[in-house]
Design goal:
The complex is a heterodimer. Chain A has no helices and 11 strands. Chain A is mostly beta strands. In chain A, a hairpin with a 4-residue loop joins strand 7 (62-67) and strand 8 (72-77). Chain B has no helices and 11 strands. In chain B, strands 2, 4, 5, 6, 9, 10 and 11 form a 7-stranded mixed beta sheet that branches. Chain B has a 4-stranded antiparallel beta sheet with strand order 1-3-8-7, with no helix packed on it. In chain B, 35% of the residues are buried. Classes of the chains: A mainly beta, B mainly beta. Chain A binds chain B through residues 4, 32, 34, 36, 41-46, 49, 89, 91, 93, 97-107, and chain B through 4, 31, 33, 35, 41-45, 48, 50, 55-56, 59, 91, 93, 95, 98-101, 103-109.
């Protein structure tokens, strides 16, 4: 069956360290993979998108890698801050253009301790 | 620029009643999506509008759910009659270009509780 798995356990790290979150998928061939952040009581907020032919993407303190052979994406937050505490969601875009629909992981809760 | 707005923020209804959720996308966005998150589960796609047309409604659970997008602007999602398993948070999202790829902008969600 088709499945997307993210770190099931909450991640607790110390301020200033690098947080690494994992997204693994099976039985999909996504064209794109996206990472979103969600805070309690709010909708997801887009962070980064990486295409199937890209290995790595960076934006400020964020870095995403995409390995279509391993069927895995890693999401890194460097120099983490307490304000980075949130749930991070991985979403796959598995359909061609004109049919934009996202398939979501359950999310990983990140807590950055001061 | 105003973001995606949803109304109401919370709704508590009895099983068998009708509820209508509204979504106002970002002005000018052709794509509008409805998603639902049931407690403890991942966000699930419900349907996708391009302007006023339903592009993909493969995620709609059953015929108790009816979505419309009047004139390609705001959208409503009606649940009639509501069942207990319809409880969850309903998110609406929009994105700019029909046929193009871009990030989705989400509203804050409507939390629906069916008693």
């Amino acid at each position: 069956s088709q499945k997307i798995e993210q770190n099931s356990e909450a991640l607790n790290i110390q301020e200033g360290k690098t947080a690494t979150l994992t997204c693994n998928y099976t039985n999909y061939s996504p064209a794109y993979l996206q990472w979103y952040r969600q805070d309690p009581g709010r909708g997801p907020v887009f962070l980064l998108l990486i295409r199937e032919n890209e290995k790595e993407k960076r934006k400020e303190r964020l870095k995403v890698t995409f390995d279509t052979t391993l069927k895995q994406s890693l999401f890194h937050i460097t120099a983490s801050q307490p304000a980075d505490s949130a749930t991070y969601l991985c979403a796959l875009d598995v359909l061609p253009p004109n049919n934009r629909k996202l398939i979501w992981g359950l999310g990983t809760s990140l807590a950055v301790n001061p | 620029e105003a973001g995606v707005t949803q109304f109401p923020s919370h709704s508590v209804i009895e099983k068998g009643q009708t509820v209508t959720l509204r979504c106002d996308p970002i002005s000018g966005h052709d794509n509008l999506y409805w998603y639902r998150r049931v407690m403890g589960k991942e966000i699930k796609f419900l349907l996708h509008f391009v302007k006023e047309s339903k592009q993909d409604e493969s995620g709609m659970p059953n015929n108790r759910f009816l979505a419309e997008r009047t004139g390609g602007t705001y959208s409503t999602l009606k649940v009639q009659p509501a069942e207990l398993e319809d409880s969850g948070v309903y998110f609406c999202a929009s994105s700019p270009l029909a046929g193009g790829y871009n990030e989705q902008f989400f509203g804050p969600g409507t939390r629906l509780t069916v008693l």
